[in-house]
Amino acid sequence: MTAVDDLDLTIDEGEVFGFLGPNGAGKSTTINMLLDFIRPTSGAVAVFGQDAQTDPAAIREQVGVLPEGYGFDDPLQGREYLEWAIETRGADDDPDELLELVGLAGDGQRMAGEYSKGMQQRLALAIALVDDPDLLILDEPSTGLDPNGIQQMRSVIRDRAENGTTVFFSSHILSEVEAVCDRVGVMSEGRLVAVDSIDGLRENAGGHATIRLECATAPTGLGVGTLDGVVSTSVDGETLIVNCADPSAKVDVVTHVAGQVPVTDILSETVSLETLFNDLTDGGRDSDEDGATAEVVQ
Amino acid sequence: MSAIAVAKKDFRSARRSRSLWLVATLLGLLTALIGYSYEGYQITPTESVQQLFAQIVLLLSLLLPIVALVASYMSIAGERESGGVKFLLSLPNTRRDVFLGKFCSRLAVVGAGIVFMFLTATVGGVARNGTLPVGFVVALLAITLVYGGVFVSIAVALSSMVAARSKAIAAAVGSYFLLVLLYVVPGLSVFMLAQWVHTTLLGFDTNLDLYNAVSYTSPLTAYRQATNMVFPESAEQRVFRRASDAGELPVYLSEEVSLFVFAVWLVVPLVVGYVRFQGADLE
Predict the structure, then answer these.
(1) Distance from CA of A162 to the nearest CA of B (A)
(2) Residue pLDDT, tens place only, A176-195
(3) ipTM of this predicted structure
(4) Helix (H, G, I), strand (E, B) or coil at B272
(5) Measured between CB atoms, does B58 come within 8 Å of chain A?
(6) Beta bridge mates, A263
(7) Between β-strands A63-66 and A135-139, what pairing exists: parallel, antiparallel or unpaired?
């Protein structure tokens, strides 16, 4: 089975890049390749211009990772795990400061294995932040976190990004990516189907801004379809549904209809990212090519 | 070297394992008991101590592989199963650091256990006999440490090749069967097997030294033969089955060959395990 196929992706220094896709799209496989946990059948993976397979330790020096599928199996306290990470990196971070940053102040003396999922996720984030790495790779970082924890994590990510840290962030939750990322890449069935800013993705979706008008009588034969910027119209009982190429056309539609029949309610919808996401990730393409090239931060 | 950081963390966790302390205590008591209760008939105190250690060697030859395998079979497989390896390899560690660190840490754990058993046996033996042949005990300890190290090497190597507890258990049990039990169960030993193949299957005349050489490939046989380097003639163990008129032991069955057998069993598993671990997909 090919999990990731023909991936070509470059991420710039200092940006927050969201890596989006449904479960099983190949996000973690890509991240595992960046870290040399698994090797591509063909192609090359480089981080900071260094090949992931020839010198993984050099990459790991510069990268902080919140992996997926980790476990705290050793009988060690949360703080001891953190101390170990600090020692391994040869850093001089204060473990208590890091614990506080991720909201674990006061819990450092407890066994990490006895933490709840959310607390383990916070500890894993703290480990990733040790020694202020140049690149943060976060695989589904909000897994198991409560809303407060998600807020805290976002603010940490933003702070680090402002200080010049590049963040590579995978998620299957749109709102999360929308809230923190400069640019997103969308994975579907092992392929990268789109790379753009959130706004860019919206625009490319064709701007199908939809307006629904509930009228007193059946709104037929009003000639809405002839208006500038209207893509299509349909009628469902007393409701008129109009797709516009541009949100500004909605006003014209309302004025035009209101002049002929009484309008009882107006419902306006912008392009939902969910729709966009579903459009992009439905139906993968088949290919015989078997190569993966990913390059993170040049 | 971050292998040291890996080893330190691993050793720290091992020290907190209650079952490990329990096993060490029980074994220490056992050897102390043997040390204190062994009594030779009409021999000097020194000879008595030597013979009691011959008993301990016999016990350890069967027990130590179990201790080393149990202490090490999950060393790497456990990290792969639980996902701990994700942290190990997200930090600036290489797979070599992880492999070496785990090996060194488990070596230290098993080594400490061996030293402890020797200490209690010595205390027991000295309390009863009032004499301590230091050089003899230290030499025997050194050989036993190597024997324990061989099984740690085998266990860590096997552990690095699998990613689940069930498979790690199967590998550990299988290796104990193949490397230990198959050399001691009388009806089903490698010696008998070699003889059967040689005489019944191939139709040759019986050649006991050939079968001895085949069974000398086991770390168990090597350990028993290596300890004979330390024991005085009176306490030496007869390791090989030979005809009464067979004369001198051939060179390839000499006691010194055991060191070569040990070296092979130390190095080969480590190399194979390391290469396999290097190429493994860690998901």
Answers:
(1) 23
(2) 787 888 888 888 888 888 88
(3) 0.85
(4) helix
(5) no
(6) A215
(7) parallel
